[in-house]
Amino acid sequence: MAAPPRILLCGDVLGRLDQLYKRFAAVNKSAGPFDVLLCVGQFFPQSSEQLDQFMNYVEGRVEIPIATYFIGDFGAGAPKVLTAASKAAQNQGFKMDGLKISDNLYWLKGSGKFQLQGLSVAYLSGRRSSIIQPFGTYSQDDVDALRAMAEEPEIVDIFLTNEWPSGITNKAVESGIPPGVSDSSGFDSTVAELVSEIKPRYHVAGTMGVFYAREPYINVDSSHVTRFLGLAPVRNKDKQKFIHAISPTPASIMSAVEMCKKPPNASLSPYIDLEKISQADSETKRPAESDLQYWRYDVSQKRQKTGAGDAERRCFKFVSSGSCPRGDKCHFVHDNDAREQYLRGVCFDFINKGKCEKGSDCSFKHSFQDNAEDVPKMRTGNGKVNRSKECWFCLSSPNIESHLIISIGDSFYCALPKGPLLEDHVLVVPIEHAPNTLSTPSESETELQKFLSSLKAYYKNLDKEVVWFEWIYRRGTHANLQVKYNFASCSWSDSVHNLQ
């Protein structure tokens, strides 16, 4: 097994890159080598007079010695630098893994989750504010994106925020709390709500001006503990610790026994008694309209076609997978029509923003389809519809995600979904471009049953029962049978077809 990645964490940089990388060189020499540097808190200088040193790195005149990721997108020079980065061709489309500012320097914009050195890293960029700005503050879209991600089964290894969560000192050993930290200023209740839902293994924050390594706490309804690290600013006058090293084994390769280990100094969760933010406070935080976050739709078909008012926002989870774990509690519309457009290959950027920055280079459609006949098709010699050119389930399509395919038969193939609802979630898909499995040729039924029997045996070896279901729409395009597991203690029927 490869050695765990070696990660450096840093507090508010405040544009002091000379001092940061000087300290990095010393730490890397004595305890390295390190793989990556993650920065929280204000990354940019406090005043324009301090920009010269900072811009030497941004503009490539001075080399950045280690891959550096930051979320503190506020301070002097931030609008100019980040606007330029947002327009760069290399940063177009969805870049949850960082927009490149210069060699080895990446901005984590908005909110998101991505894989870094095998670790699952989530982040919330910007600070809480009632006035949403292009840079430096987070939106309600950013918050709700993370809440949707929290529903996914994957354990987040590292969660980065600029501000500390409200209540972090609850149930903590008082002797370990830095002076002044008990004051309520500088804490964020929204961050507290998010971290209580996400339950990361490490939560790292800045902006408080002090170093605080809270004892690990036991999460509610979760087997692992969370460690909170608050980091001080670079070159602070009190010589508080601003750089900290960790080397966690990714949760994805840890055993259940390892994940369940509790340190002897572990405390109860500080968020056990956390209450919901009041409705009035929620209204203050929610912007009237924001297009800073890709997670939800803010352009509807109606708006595109008629120019009518603001669009209702749609749940990405539902549109992309056909279901939403939040159910009736979801804040957003579960729109079957939007899902049909998504399944027909309408560009994700176009549905989300009403435009696509890739333009003609994009291989997806930039128009909504009113009828099934509008979808470009390829036909066989007898005129029968064989497959859709832009359907990513068709093996002949240029949009097929071939790396997700597990096995290919004569009539069906097995693949992993782009957005799995559970671990070991798979799809069984007909090779023929058919709207549902009920319409596939009868002679292919034998092969379908072989796929399902094999999957059932696989899940049985894991002591799990399998359940498969299919969403069938009046104007469906390419069938896909969803195959997921449930623990053996529960009773499921072997086959469920949900007819819409």
TrEMBL record:
Q: Name one GO molecular function term.
A: RNA lariat debranching enzyme activator activity
The record's annotation in InterPro entries points to: Cwf19-like, Cwf19-like_C_dom-1, HIT-like_sf, Znf_CCCH, Znf_CCCH_sf
Outline the extent of the C3H1-type domain: 309-337, 341-369
Zn finger region (C3H1-type): 309-337, 341-369
GO CC annotations, alphabetized: post-mRNA release spliceosomal complex
Pfam families noted in UniProt:
CwfJ_C_1 (PF04677)
Q: Which GO terms describe its biological process?
A: mRNA splicing, via spliceosome
The record's listing under CDD domains reads: MPP_CWF19_N
Entry-linked SMART domains:
ZnF_C3H1
Spell out the PANTHER family in the cross-references.
Answer: CWF19, CELL CYCLE CONTROL PROTEIN, CWF19-LIKE PROTEIN 1
The protein depicted here goes by the name C3H1-type domain-containing protein
Q: Which organism is it from?
A: Kalanchoe fedtschenkoi
